Amino acid sequence: MQIRGLTIFLLFCLTSLVLTTNPLHAEVGVEASLSHLSFPEDRMAQLTVTVSGASKNADIRLPEIDSISLHNRGQSSQINMINGTITSSLSHNYLVQAAQPGQFTIPAIEVRAAGKSYHTEPIAFTVTASGQSSNETHSKDGNSLAEAAFLKISFSGEHYPGEIVPLTIKAYFSQKYRFDEISLPTLQGDGVITPQLNTNPIKSQEAVNKRMYHVLTWETSLSGIKVGEHPVLFSLNASLLTQQKRRSSSPFGGNSLFGDSLFDNFFSGYQRKPISLRSEETVFNVLPLPTDNQPAGFTGAIGTFDLKVSASPLNLEVGEPITLIMEISGTGNFDRVEAPQFPATTDWKTYSPTSDFSTETNNHSRTKVFEQAVVAKNPELSKIPALAFSYFDPALKDYLTITSAPIDIELRGSSMAPPMAQATVIKEKVNSAIQKQVQERFRRLAPIRLETGTFHKELNPLYKKRWFLAVSLLLLLILITSIFLKFKQNQKRNNPERGLLQQKQEQLANDIQTVKQAMEDGNSRGFCSACRRTIQNQLGILWHIEPSAISLTNLESKLHPDSPLLEIFAIAEEAAYGAVELSAEKMQDYTTKMTLELEKLA
Amino acid sequence: MNRLAFIVLIPMLLLLPFGSALQGETSSNVETLFQEANSTYSRGEFSLAIEKYNHIVQNSGYSVALLLNLANSYAQTEQIGKAVVNYERALLLSPSDPDISGNLELIRKESGLFQEERSASGKLFHFFSSNQWAGLSLLSFLVLTCFQLASFKILFTRQTGRVVTFICVALLLLSATATYVRHQTINPSIVISPEARLLISPFETATSAGMIQEGRRIHPSKTYNTFTYVTDDTNRKGWIQTAFIESVCNPPL
Questions:
Q1: Rounded to an integer, what distance in angstroms lies between the CA atom of residue B124 and that of residue B243?
Q2: CA of A461: which chain B residue's CA is closest?
Q3: N- or C-end of chain B: fewer Cβ atoms within 10 A?
């Protein structure tokens, strides 16, 4: 019973609330907004016309705009209750599509609601060319690109030739964009060198001007190689990935399933735009090293160093080698750090030091360890002398010399040996020790050969030897000749008519020569015979008949009746069996006619 | 049968005179001195052995055994650079000798002279020595020429002609390319001094561009006074004192 009463009370309250706060009576307002005020031709913007405080019967009259199409994408409604006052709004969505780039304006849109006419404010917008990004993507805009990615380097002050100057290179990439194909920074500038950069830089995130960036950091160093002011900058290449949004083609309008931006991520591709980042140009000033107060043992080391010297064994016999360990640690140009000079005295025999280099620690500190064998020659010695190392400190701008403390040793035993014999023993002992070490290292070498083998006067490679070049040249000539001959042979085989023509021409030339000779001699009989033979030879080749078998009958059957060859051949046949006398003019006439006719037939 | 004899005999006849040209001659004196040097080596007197082996080189030239023994002697006296030079020279004469390449490998490993990893094409071009590539190019050239000559006498099928020509030309191109590539690094030098360093200018007081290890292979390109401009296998460049390096090919006798 109580529950029923409570339900009736709640229904009453709700009904009262609805009746007392009818939004129909609220004031009507219209507003138009565009999602992007600048967008490329191949994309669209969303136009939203919001009608508040009106019924659902608002009538929106869209304007006609040249080169602009408006596609209805449905409507959405919203009801707000603030302090008991209920307001409702209805948003009508349209996609704005441009047919060409340019500046456009959506004029005031007329909305008829509650029997009245309302107008929105005009909206101006820009459509850029296809493929160009709008201002919002910033990829074209130089300033925005500079904010999207940039490069910073850090060093300062004045330096000296060979000094190792720590350098930090930081590449910033905005988290709003995607980048790939990021190259290593490269140094641009003369007079300075930098070691090869690590291909795995430190990755971190930093906020710069309230923007979050992915940061790649390279810790490296710069070193000036000559005195002067050297402008230095670093550059880096990368690709900026800009997403290509899909153009909505839903036939159903409204917010279709594939109109969601989520699907843009899946189905649209990325466009790669190469970008080049350059740090600000900074002057790397390299000063000459001061020549005043330069220590004698200075080898070019610049930086901050420390020296530690130890020796073992400390209790030994005269002649036994002592191993000196000299550790030089610190920061600087270790390639110019050399072992401290052991004082040259007759009391000590020294050997060349060897060096070993430790890896770099976090603070660029390194250690170079020198190992040197020394042998005490004088039994009265009680200390290994102090060793000194000199370097130039760029912070103090002065040369410093570090000196180790002398090391106490205790020599015993063979002080009775005479000096010369003692020196020999020492030398032998040291040599023997070194030799044993070396033999141990190289004991796996293949043994020496016992036969001399063939001797060679020179070590030139084969292709530099004369005989090799001569044979190659000879082979080349033979090859070229044989290829040429082969070519000619093939040509002849593939084109027999060409050979025939050549044969005819040669035959004709010879025969005409004979005819002319007979004509010059005034020999009518010889002339006629030569003409007959000439005609037979040419026509024999042409008709593929044995030349001597060609008769006047053949000519009459195969040549035109007006052919001068018929007349000449008939005269020639006649001359073969009887006397025929031809004048010089006639012979000349026959020769000309015959030559022309045969050439024509050929 | 006649065809086969024709194809096989022509290359052999052409190569015959050159085979004998490769033969050298040894004298009994050289043999005696060589045995003496070997005895000295066996007694552990490596410096003396080096002197004797070098004496033979000066007077009689190079042989594989002589260079191997000399290189072993240098290795035993820890003259790594000199040892590497002589192993490299021995490899020029006998590229496939496992003793030489094994010793060279060992000495490089023991001295920390690690080689750069070669690319695929680099591995192909280094599959044979430069002499072997040159020999292969000459052989393919010879076969191609003989085949062309034989085709005047013998009628080969078109397919045979194409296959033989293709194989010969392909081999010729490959071996000629390999020879050219090897030529670019054919005349290396070796750092023979532990004090060698690369300098950025050809002066003793010039700034150092870094140490260069004894035994490293370098490629000289030009000289200035007593300095040579070199590039090492890791593509580092710089000037080095000419006295600190020694050429593998054509050393001064």
A1: 34
A2: B131
A3: N
User: Cα(B32)–Cα(A401) distance, rounded to whole angstroms?
Assistant: 58
Q: How many CB pairs under 8 A join A and B?
A: 154
Q: Chain A: residue nearest B33 by CA? A: A452
Q: What is the pLDDT of residues A160-213, one digit of tens each?
A: 888 888 888 999 998 888 888 888 898 888 888 888 788 888 888 888 877 888
Q: Which pLDDT belongs to residue B70? A: 94
Q: Is the pLDDT of residue A57 over 80?
A: no
Q: Is the dihedral of CA B215, B218, B220, B225 positive or negative?
A: negative
Within 8 A of A454 by CB-CB distance, chain B residues are 22-24, 26, 63-64
A458–chain B Cβ distance below 8 A for any pair: yes
Q: How far is CA A78 from CA A51, A306, B25, in A?
A: 10, 76, 108
- Number of Cβ within 10 Å of residue A125's Cβ equals 20
Among the partner-chain residues B30, B89, B152, the one whose CB lies closest to the CB of A459 is B89
Which amino acid, residue B101?
S
SS3 A235: strand
8 Å CB contact between A165 and A190: no
Q: Are B209 and B224 in contact (CB under 8 A)?
A: no
- Cα A414 from Cα A379, distance rounded (Å): 8
> Considering only CA atoms, which of B44, B73, B239 is closest in space to residue A436?
B44
B82 CB neighbour count, 10 Å cutoff: 22
Q: Are strands A348-350 and B189-191 parallel, antiparallel or unpaired?
A: unpaired
Nearest CA in chain A to B103: A445
CA distance B4 to chain A (A): 20
In the structure, what pLDDT confidence band is assigned to residue B128 with cuts at 50, 70 and 90?
A: confident
Task: Tell if the pTM clears 0.95, that is, is over it.
Answer: no
The structure tokens listed for B181 are 């590539």
Report the C-alpha gap between A298 and A49 in whole angstroms. 82
Interface of B with A in 178-217 (CB under 8 A): 179, 183, 186, 194, 197, 200, 207-211
CA distance A64 to A453: 101
C-beta atoms of B26 and A483 within 8 A: no
Q: Are B41 and B52 in contact (CB under 8 A)?
A: no
Task: Give long-range contacts, CB 8 A cutoff, 24+ apart: A472-476.
Answer: A472/B138, A472/B141, A475/B138, A475/B141, A475/B142, A475/B145, A476/B141
What is the per-residue pLDDT for A364?
A: 66
CB contact under 8 A, B145 and A438: no
> Are the CB atoms for A34 and A96 separated by under 8 Å?
yes
Question: Rounded distance, CA B169 to CA A483, Å?
Answer: 14
Using alpha carbons, select from A414, A410, A435, A411 the residue that is nearest to residue A423.
A414
Chain B CA closest to residue A442: B76
Q: Name the band, by pLDDT with cuts 50, 70 and 90, for residue A360.
A: low
Closest CB from A453, A459, A467 relative to B21: A467
The amino acid present at A238, given as its one-letter code, is A
Does the beta-carbon distance from B68 to A442 stay under 8 Å?
no
